[in-house]
Amino acid sequence: MTTSEEMFEPRLSSRRRRGRWFGRACALLSMVGVGVLVVLLVRIGLEGGAWLNLRFLTAGPSMLDPTRAGVRSALWGTLWLITVTATVAVPLGIAAAVYLHEYARDTRLTRFIRLNIANLAGVPSIVYGILGLAVFVRWFVFDRSILSGGLTMALLVLPVIIIASREALAAVPPSFRLAAYALGATRWQTIWAHVLPAALPGIMTGVILAISRAIGEAAPLILLGALTWVTAVPSSLFDPFTVLPIQVYAWSDQPQAEFHHLAAAGIIVLLGILLPMNAVAIGVRAWHQRRKAW
Amino acid sequence: MAERTSSSRRAVVRAKAVTVCLALGVPVVPSAAAEPKAASGSVRLDGSSTVAPITMAAAEMFQEQHPKVRVTVGISGTGGGFKKFLESRAELRTDVNDASRPITQAEMDQAAKLGVEFIEVPIGLDGLAVLAHPSNTFCEHLTLAELKKIWEPGSTINNWKDVRVGFPDLPLHLYGPGPDSGTFDYFTEVVVGKPKASRGDYSSSENDNVLIQGIAGDKGSLGYVGFSYYEANAAKLRLVAVDNGDGKPRKPTLDSIRDGSYTPLSRPMFLYVNKASYARPEVQLFLDYLLGNAKTIVEHHRVGYVAFPEELYSIAGKRLREGKVGSVVAKGTGKDILSLYRQN
């Protein structure tokens, strides 16, 4: 018997016990997360559920009579804002990702660009608000309009879209490209007909998640100057606007309890937009996983 | 003959009506001129969250009559609002700033530098009432120093006997609005000397009616709420007079708030109007509506402030129409606003 074998103690049961405890601890911690979410949803539902009806969706934010108040202007503001954001950020983001992943050579410049895009994705959203205020509101004189807000939000989500799209492009096997080249396709034909379709589900997941982030953001818009009590539905890109998160914030700041119920109902509307969007993103990914050919 | 008398009487009545309207600051001519084509365009307000309920309520009532005019109200605080009122580019400026304090010298200098002419409109008063349980007969008044001693951060006073020598041995229970409230900001600023500086161990609620119930049901209670909430529940409460240091304790009443003698726990609120904006018919219509219905709006139960005497609103309306720029209150602090406006 060698010394080392003598020193070896399997202590199997204690090791397994430790393993079981670790598993339980992980399960417990994950339940904490879910539990908080459930408490939040139940609380919001109890507080705002009774206030949620069709009138709530079609009425303006009444100050004099909370029972007549609604989110019409905020809902439309959110839709306008998101349209601007998506129109600008999605094509730009995908194009940038295609360039960076398919065309650009690995030079010092492109490495610098990539590094900065990754950094931008981590910049706090309020900083984008300052940027939007300086550039779009003051310099371009777009004023505190939907256009300024939408462009600011587009900047905010652009890095996220670029990174998600690049990852989706990177997940397309190089053999796709090689096969296309071997058959005589140009680089453009390869990308357009083979790489992009294969990467599309991944890109879409990234885009949807980025857009839903923009829907839920309030901080950059407050800084931009959109903390505004607006009753009218915007009719052009240059109109003042408010969005759902800001409306919720404004209501929760009022002293009277009725407004807190309105805020809770507003949160339900916001979740009613966000959860289906996230569900679509998850669905697209799952569908893609199933029919993936490689 | 009979017809002539009646028609001349009608003329007299009409003339009287016009005089009354003018006296009340109700625009007779401007609205008549603007009536034919429906007013449109937008009016942009920003500024104090304290004043915002007044302008939001006004905007809501106004838009029922003029649905095509887009009135927006931002809440950036008085100072933040002045920044938007005094943007260097004219097209970015707001039309009206909601202010819970008079314009400062620095802001006036900035306006002069930019060539922004503004007209000051006093719009209402925000008063605080210090309250105790109705059975509390020993505490007729408190001085500002005593209030500070009770409410400042770190205060450990939990018995009335520690407030002033001679007060009975009775536990002191404090009630006040929570930190999100403008009333809280105002009280702490005036009493403690720094906004939001307050002891934290008191019963707080953002709902003033809860505070009223608490104070009314607790023998050792002391608390503060907005004056309008006290007025609605006066029978259940004891109003404590406040001595601001001049040895003359004063209770808040509509009169002592209006004439400014209940200082410093009542403060005037103002609108600052860009003169160039007032030239636009929609801005004119909105402000004339606001001044013409000021009492209804300012004292609406959802808004809950104290209105100035009608005379002040009519002077303010006249100053707007005549384009009298500059701050009147900045010329004489410490005097009551109505007499300042009468003089200028």
Describe this structure in words.
The complex is a heterodimer of chains A (294) and B (344). Chain A is mainly α and 294 residues long. Chain A has 2 domains: 41 residues; 235 residues, MetI-like (MetI-like fold, Orthogonal Bundle), CATH 1.10.3720.10. Helix content of chain A is 76%, strand content 1%. Chain A has 12 helices and 1 strand; from the N terminus they run H-H-H-H-H-H-H-H-H-H-E-H-H. The mean pLDDT of chain A is 90. Chain B has 344 residues and is of the alpha/beta class. Chain B folds into 2 domains: 201 residues, Periplasmic binding protein-like II (D-Maltodextrin-Binding Protein, domain 2, 3-Layer(aba) Sandwich), CATH 3.40.190.10; 132 residues, Periplasmic binding protein-like II (D-Maltodextrin-Binding Protein, domain 2), CATH 3.40.190.10. In chain B, helix 7 links the parallel strand 6 and strand 7. In chain B, helix 12 runs antiparallel to helix 14 and helix 14 runs parallel beside helix 15. The interface between A and B is medium-sized, with 23 and 32 residues. Strand 1 of chain A pairs antiparallel with strand 2 of chain B, so a sheet runs across the interface.
What does this entry show, briefly?
The complex is a heterodimer of chains A (294) and B (344). With 294 residues, chain A is mainly α.
What's the arrangement of secondary structure elements?
The complex is a heterodimer of chains A (294) and B (344).
Chain A: H1 3-7, H2 12-48, H3 54-58, H4 72-103, H5 108-121, H6 125-139, H7 146-170, H8 174-182, H9 187-216, H10 219-224, E1 228-230, H11 244-252, H12 257-291
Chain B: H1 2-24, H2 29-34, E1 41-47, H3 52-65, E2 69-74, H4 77-85, E3 96-99, H5 105-114, E4 118-132, E5 141-143, H6 144-151, E6 173-176, H7 182-192, E7 203-204, H8 208-216, E8 221-226, H9 227-232, E9 238-243, H10 254-258, E10 266-274, H11 275-278, H12 281-292, H13 294-298, H14 310-322, H15 337-343
Parallel strand pairs in B: 1-2, 1-3, 5-9, 6-7, 6-8
Antiparallel strand pairs in B: 3-10, 4-8, 4-9, 4-10
Helix pairs in contact in B: 12-14, 14-15
